[in-house]
Amino acid sequence: MQQIEEMVQDSQQMWCDPEFPADDSSLYLNPVQPPEWASPNVEWKRPQEIFQGEGPPMMMKDGFSPGDVKQGELGDCWLLGAFLCLATNPDLLKNLIYHDGIEYGYSVFRFFKNGEWQFVVIDTRIPYSPSTKEPLYARCVDPQEFWVPLIEKAYAKLHKKYELLNGGKMGEGMVDISGGVSEKYNLKAPETKEMLENGTFWKMIKSYLKQ
Asked: Which residue in 16, 70, 72, 101 has the fewest CB atoms around it within 10 Å?
């Protein structure tokens, strides 16, 4: 991190990630033949270029909230659903953001993948739609905040392509971003219905939220 910031100060230019370039090779499995859902016009812009309001762009402005998350043109609602859940426990979400270096053009995140915490360094260039004038994929409701598209980009880099986030399981996303264990309950199952009726299910949910 110190090396990147020193490079930025010496060159007077924000850092660019050579491992995950700002082009179609980072978006699609086959850049020559993008998937049908791919947007024909994709630009890459930094938060400083996207947000034109008062003050600088931020990772987060007034803390995290489930209402911060807005889906874009990528089918990664499973991952964004995990973001929503984690936002109910801000400390867990803060743990995901290892270093905020937006002013230098990079950020560092960590994910629990293959049984261990893995650190992912990205530059802050994110896919941008010139027609809507906002991030092409996931974004924050507050245009000054950028934690959603930046975490999404880091997760895409971890999986090599944005396209590979197009469809997935929320439980897997929860494990990757929290390091915890995912449990699934069938609300129509007799044992779950009994837990709902006697209140033990909601007590369990509340106990998880306090952890």
From this structure: 16
Convert the pLDDT of each residue in 75-134 to its tens digit.
Answer: 999 999 999 888 888 888 888 999 999 988 999 999 999 889 999 999 999 999 999 999
Q: What is the pTM of this model?
A: 0.88
Longest dimension (CA), the chain: 65
Buried b (16+ CB within 10 A) or exposed e, 2-26: eebeeebeeeeebbebeebebebeb
Q: If residue 175 lies in a helix (H) or strand (E), which one and from where to where?
A: helix 170-178
Residue 145 is classified by DSSP as B
Residue appearing with tokens 């499973």: 78
Contacts of range 100-105, beta carbons closer than 8 Å, 24 or more positions apart: 100/59, 101/1, 101/4, 101/5, 102/47, 102/56, 102/57, 102/58, 102/59, 102/146, 102/150, 103/56, 104/4, 104/5, 104/8, 104/14, 104/15, 105/8, 105/13, 105/14, 105/15, 105/16, 105/46
150, containing H or E segment: helix 147-158
